[in-house]
Amino acid sequence: MKALIHVGGAVLLSAVLAAQQPGLTVAQIEKPSPDSWPTYNGDYSGRRFSSLTKVNAGNVKHLSLAWIYDLPNPGTIKATPLQVGGVLYFTTPNHVYAVDARTARELWHYTFSRSRGGIQIGNRGVAILGDTVYFVTTDCNLVALDIKTGTEKWAKEFCSLEMMYYGSIAPVVVKDKLILGPSGDDLDVPAYLEARSPANGDLIWRWYVTPQKEGDPGLDTWPNLDMAKHGGGMTWQPITYDPELNHIYVTTGNPQPVVAFKNREGANLFTASIVALNADTGKMVWYFQSSPHDTHDWDATQTAVVFDGTIDGRPRKLIAQASRNGMFFVLDRTTGKAIVSSDYNKTNWSLGYDAKGQPIQNPDKRPQIAGALVTPNQGGATNWFPPSFSPQTGLFYVNATRAFSVWYIYDASDNPMGWGGTDRGGYAEQGQLKAIDYKTGKIRWSIPRYGGNSGILTTAGNVLFNSAAGGIGAYNATTGEALWNARIGGSVTNGPITYELDGLQYVVAGAGSRLVGFVLNQ
């Protein structure tokens, strides 16, 4: 059964635009031009910061609607579109779309129609290299498409649907490799990150999150090898990368069994961690564990943002994460040593930080048969939606929620499996968009967050784009002052992007099954 490709209405215009599509080189990904958004976070750093200034805090109120694209198939746009050669490429589960970045006229639409199943929770987007678009399917296939036509070139399995893995990640091109990992369903399967060939999908290297054999690093943090081999830690978020150090930064998920913990005492490395890998070999360089011995399903897969800054008067190579557990970390990205560890949301589950800057778990706040009142709840202080960092303001921005719930153990055996507990009830405060000073970990300002799973975009025009009531909003990146908002049929459900074409700066965001573009016509 062949995949389906649907062509939009203006065949002639589509053909002309397709013929102009130049593809993408590694050099263009490493140093993006203002007229592009060539990889998931815009560049390798994960900052989601644009150097564009045509739209600024003074004139953003004049943004107007440029176009609307409504999906022809049901789905929620959680993907960050890539903009290459005047074309936007984005996904929903098992679908890829190419639309004109100026008008949203559909150029092609690919459907992976032979899927065997898999979880449809969402898809983060595509990678592009040369004349090929890459994405993953729900049933664990890495698929390569022709950038001009959407015709399938090849498909190769990168994880096992039968073992309850599924595909949702946006691959990232690093030099001559595609970097990706599987998502999982918390059923005691091992997690991994791998590099595959862009030419044919062949495996180049694979790094397992947890120890898989005797002698592997971190085995002493598990009760035994069997528990470690089935320890989880899924790598379902796109990586960040430092080309100078040649370090890939992967953020890892929660350990297994989830919530129940009686048979896995120890730190459970390298789950719930930020890990630096050598991009050529996949070998670990260093690690930092954001949630040692996690017992609350608080994966630490939130984006690890790469930037340079000044600490104590001297320049430093830094990496920062606002983790799902409510804590903010700034590390030296050369060594992994903690510089700042602080709470960006009020929490009650830790007793402070150890000498490594890692949180110390309060045993009384572990899930219990009688229940334990804990904040955050299972959803976490933040989740998958990407943060942003502005080198202009020195602020790290994150969408955060404070929620309480009661955590229970319902599998009290000595050997719990899968989900051995859960959280129930409680209450949630209104979500907040928070600006964190990276030097201190202190909150510089905080304003109400309006719905959706919005990622954040900041620009050199001192503008921050995020969800707003009924749609998308613009805020002053220095102060948090609301500057503009527009209804787009719902809250933002992806990470907004910006790019410049023909001297005009566009801002694009998804809202459910709708992609919307705005432009400054001045």
The gist of it:
This protein has 522 residues and is mainly beta. Helices cover 4% and strands 39% of the residues.
Features:
522 residues; mainly beta; five-stranded antiparallel sheet; five-stranded mixed sheet; 41 strands; disordered N terminus
What this model shows, in words?
The chain has 522 residues and is mainly β. It is built from 3 helices and 41 strands. It has a 5-stranded antiparallel sheet. A hairpin with a 5-residue loop joins strand 33 (432-437) and strand 34. The longest helix is centred in the N-terminal third of the chain and has 10 residues, at 11-20. The radius of gyration is 22 Å and the shape is globular. The relative contact order is 0.14.
Terminus-to-terminus distance: 50 Å
- The overall pLDDT, averaged over residues, is 94
Inertia-based shape: globular
Q: How would you classify the helix and strand content by structural class?
A: mainly beta
Question: How many DSSP-defined strands?
Answer: 41
How is the main sheet built?
Answer: 5 strands, antiparallel
Low-confidence stretches: 1-20
Strand order of the largest sheet: 1-7-6-5-4
What is the CA-based Rg, rounded?
A: 22 Å
Number of helices: 3
Helix content range: under 10%
- The amount of beta strand, in percent, is 35-45%
List the helices and strands and how they pair.
Blueprint: E1 4-6, H1 11-20, H2 26-30, E2 49-50, E3 64-70, E4 82-84, E5 87-92, E6 95-100, E7 106-111, E8 127-129, E9 132-136, E10 141-146, E11 152-157, E12 165-166, E13 172-174, E14 177-180, E15 183-184, E16 192-196, E17 203-208, H3 225-229, E18 240-242, E19 247-251, E20 273-278, E21 284-289, E22 305-311, E23 314-322, E24 327-332, E25 338-343, E26 350-353, E27 359-361, E28 372-374, E29 388-390, E30 395-400, E31 405-409, E32 421-424, E33 432-437, E34 443-448, E35 457-459, E36 463-468, E37 471-476, E38 482-487, E39 497-501, E40 504-511, E41 514-519
